[in-house]
Task: structure prediction
Amino acid sequence: MPLSDDQNSDSDSSRLSESTASSSDSEYSRQSFNSDSSSKPSSPASASPPKMVTFDELMAAARNFTNLTLAHEIAVNANFCIKHEDYPQNSLAGTVKRIVHKAFWDHLESELNEDPPEYEHAIKLFEEIKEILLSFLTPGANRIQNQICEVLDTDLIRQQAEHNAVDIHGLANYIINTMGKLCAPIRDNDIKQLKATENIVELLRQIFHVLDLMKMDVANYTIQSLRPYLRRNLVDYERTKFQEILEETPSALDLTTEWIKESIEDELSSISNESSSSPGADHSSKPSISPTLVLNNGYLKLLQWDYHKTIPETLITDEVRLQELREKLNQLKIIACVCLITNNMVGAAIVDVPDFADQLKRISFPLLEGMSKKTFDLKEALNAIGVQICLKVNESLTERGLPTLNAEMQNNLMGQIASIVEENNPVSSVIDKRIQLFMKSLLALPSFRKCVPTLPGGLSVIQTEVELVGSQFASIVDFNKQVYGPFYANILKKLLFPEAAIGKAETEAPCN
Result:
């Protein structure tokens, strides 16, 4: 890790607010929508007329979004780190890179083998190495900084080259020893290998490779150091950064507005259907819609979202996690369907078999791995599951001396399992509604909840997995509400109570 003669200062924390991230109320009242929230420091700025956005402003907003996403990922993903990745062996980019690098190092070797040797390219490499080594130092490491600048003084090396007096091996050894002082313990073996390399060109090439690894180590060390500060201040940080994005790009809430608008329309449609089915209902009064319910229903849509479409802007930082949860739920839904169909058809034959549902899960999970991949064939996977389940049922029946399933029953069982993939399959629809009901009940609980809601029937076989996914989903939603609650409040106020917004505009208009 970076070497310093003095104690590291806590300068990183100054970039973030010192206040602890506070939870904002996720419950919205009509009173809050009719109040002016623009005066609050953490609330989004009030609406302003559209303005033209320049290319520079757009690029600045893109950089802010990148910083926002990176900060969020560092804070919420404890496993986030930078990894060293090369191009695939047979890729065009990988081939071009290898050819160019080989040409460079071959040219350097031919220069050093001349009589007298030509050192110009080698001197440029030493200059680059010096800058990399200096970048590893923290403020206050004056002694080692001066030493690096003195030993790798390119002007001095160039003067020595003019008199053919460059000790290139000595310089390389100094660089390796300095790298050994600055590197993380995980690189000690790499340093040993450098010391064992005799060919100077290969040595320089490997030095740059290890320096790249050390850069990665420093970046990961910085990430690890920043994580506690980001976690403490993430709500305020993300809200402030998104406000900056919104000021630079007024359209940065367009997709979010559309997402909320669709949720409102769905809720109005649901209320309309309920009213039409109730003969005594009062159809003259305007339906009352809960903003919290609208928002929660919008979040539930993300579990069935087509991630080929762009996700609402306020959820981009969690897009990958939401997509993973959706795919996990799809897998669990298939397993619940398989178990329900099997129990309905051959339940009497397996009722006395302990943990039979767990056995069905162990059969199904491996065959459903990779469901998110484009190459995955769900119908083929379901056929394989059907075959394996028939074998497992017959094996259990044989062990207990009972007659096995006949060909007709096996074909029927495999056919029903294979039909899960069909649109509007009744079993799949029922399981899907029950999972959605559970998730909806979970989001309706207050954030300080101490228990999860009761799982609907038919999901007991996947209870542990669904509760885990639900907990992860609720955590994402709760945090998202804390960060973007004021932005959602303004959007919901305009969409649900437009007369209030119009009245306010008329009040503020100047008199003629």
In short: Residues 90 and 96 are 10 Å apart (CA to CA). The mean pLDDT is 79. The longest helix spans residues 200-248.
